[in-house]
UniProtKB/TrEMBL annotation:
One biological process term in Gene Ontology: L-serine catabolic process
Modified residues (N6-(pyridoxal phosphate)lysine): K108
InterPro entries: Ser/Thr_Dehydratase (IPR050147), Thr_synthase-like (IPR004450), TrpB-like_PALP (IPR001926), TrpB-like_PALP_sf (IPR036052)
UniProt keyword Acetylation present: no
Domain Tryptophan synthase beta chain-like PALP: 74-375
Protein name: Threonine synthase
E.C. number(s) listed in UniProt: 4.2.3.1
Root EC class: lyase
Keywords: Lyase, Pyridoxal phosphate
GO MF annotations in UniProt: L-serine ammonia-lyase activity; threonine deaminase activity; threonine synthase activity
């Protein structure tokens, strides 16, 4: 499926595959367009299955000329069946796409991989971005792995965990006293006067956006070449959300899977929910807002792909919902306690939205649902502070027993069977695994 042009999403004007992101005629956004697949489905599938266990196994669907390679392998993250979460929500089948398993622990490794590879093909020497945190992290790491200098511009009030994890890679971190939309505006200006710089989500945006399709491709392949009935995913700029649908559609068009695009449910934080607000009002005009939420990685007040996200939710019978900061915290805990996956606030937004859809009765009892858990909880550790207790005791067995009283010595419970002597000798209790 060779890429053949950049095409305006509004007026369909075509441009060569350069570092260009906005239509000169109508100022609409550009995206990569492809020629029809030049292989039959069986051959395409064979090539995918013979590929590496990274996102590059889908190179046939990505806009690169040369062999797709990167120094920091990305993708092929686990798709985890979440039966305990499903039971708790009264649903039949939930799968978690666990993007915390990427090299910098968020889905941003995918978009950076494609943007960096294309930037090299186009001869850029420096990598840069405007970021809400995870993108800075991914740009810094992938640039380091590729031996390129990197400049990352971020809002000054990001989580410290994200800034520290980014600085370690040696990137120049520029903290701007303003919100993401201010940072983005500044980057667009800088981009205009630094011709050697590839801003992954500005002048490289059409290529960057393609990386998100691999989330959909992997989901289909990991479900045994089947489509989910419904996908719940977070929305910041709306790029990932809309490209998920694009990915499903491309696999359908290529004959790799049968069916329709899943019902698409978008998730936003109430404190930054211009897309959910537009959806509720029945319009695709997303009025810019000033973000105020703990979900900082989703805090884009003026989302570039917002209108397309609204349109997609409408077209597939889905919705775009928003959840409060307390619901986000509860969503993080719910996922962690039922699956062992610790997600950041963006994942909390997704899981809280999933819970809301389930409670509202929007999800059919026979549906197969996939939730996109896009980032790691260690990056937003404050979101769980004070949500549980730590029991502090002196190093004495009596103190332990005082707090965690055995059910009754001699009873047929693990604690009852555990004679102190047996524990001292490292004996394995009945029912324990060696
Ligand atoms: C960037 C990001 C998203 C979504 O971003 P879009 O701009 O909508 O593509 C989702 N989750 C996390 C953790 C992110 O960092
Ligand atoms: Zn146009």
């Amino acid at each position: 499926m060779p890429a053949d042009a950049l095409k305006c999403k509004e007026c369909s004007t075509e441009y060569p595959l350069e570092a260009r992101f906005v239509c000169e005629r109508c100022f609409g956004p550009l995206e990569v367009s492809y020629a029809a697949p030049n292989s039959d489905p069986a051959e395409l599938k064979r090539r995918i299955q013979a590929g590496p266990h990274t996102m590059w196994r889908y190179a046939d669907f990505l806009p690169l000329e040369g062999p797709a390679r990167s120094a920091l392998p990305t993708g092929w993250t686990p798709l985890v069946k979440a039966d305990r979460l499903a039971a708790k929500l009264g649903l039949k089948e939930i799968w978690i796409k666990n993007e915390t398993a990427n090299p910098t622990h968020s889905f941003k490794d995918r978009v950076v991989s494609v943007a960096l590879a294309r930037a090299k093909e186009l001869g850029f020497d420096t990598l840069a971005c405007a970021s809400t945190g995870n993108l800075a992290n991914a740009v810094a790491a992938h640039a380091a792995a590729a031996g390129m200098p990197a400049y990352v511009l971020i809002p000054h009030d990001l989580e410290e965990q994200k800034i520290l994890a980014t600085g370690a890679y040696g990137a120049q971190i520029v903290a701007v006293t303003g919100n993401y939309d201010d940072v983005n505006r500044l980057c667009t200006q800088v981009s205009g006067e630094r011709p050697g710089w590839a801003f992954v989500n500005i002048n490289m945006r059409p290529y960057y956006a393609e990386g998100s399709k691999t989330l959909a491709f992997e989901t289909v392949e990991q479900l045994g070449w089947e489509l989910p009935d419904r996908v719940v995913g977070p929305i910041a700029s709306g790029s990932q959300f809309t490209k998920l649908a694009r990915g499903f559609q491309e696999f359908i068009d290529a004959g790799l899977v049968e069916g329709e695009i899943p019902t698409m449910n978008g998730a936003q934080a109430l404190g930054c929910s211009p897309v959910a607000t537009a959806f509720a009002a029945g319009t695709d005009v997303c009025k810019p807002v000033k973000p105020d939420t703990i979900a900082k990685s989703l805090a884009i007040g003026n989302p570039a792909d917002g209108p397309y996200a609204v349109e997609l939710a409408q077209r597939t019978g889905g919705s775009i919902d928003s959840v409060t900061d307390d619901e986000i915290r509860a969503g993080i805990r719910l996922l962690a306690e039922t699956t062992g996956i610790f997600t950041e606030t963006a994942g909390g937004v997704t899981i809280a939205t999933l819970a809301k859809l389930a409670a509202r009765g929007d999800i059919g009892t026979d549906e197969r649902v996939v939730a996109m858990v896009t980032g790691d909880g260690l990056k937003t550790i404050d979101a769980v502070r004070d949500t549980f207790e730590v029991t502090t005791i002196p190093a004495s067995l009596d103190a332990f027993d005082e707090h965690f009283a055995p059910v009754g010595v001699g009873e047929a419970s693990p604690s009852g069977l555990a004679s102190r002597g047996a524990i001292a000798h490292g004996a394995i209790l009945p029912g324990e695994v060696a």
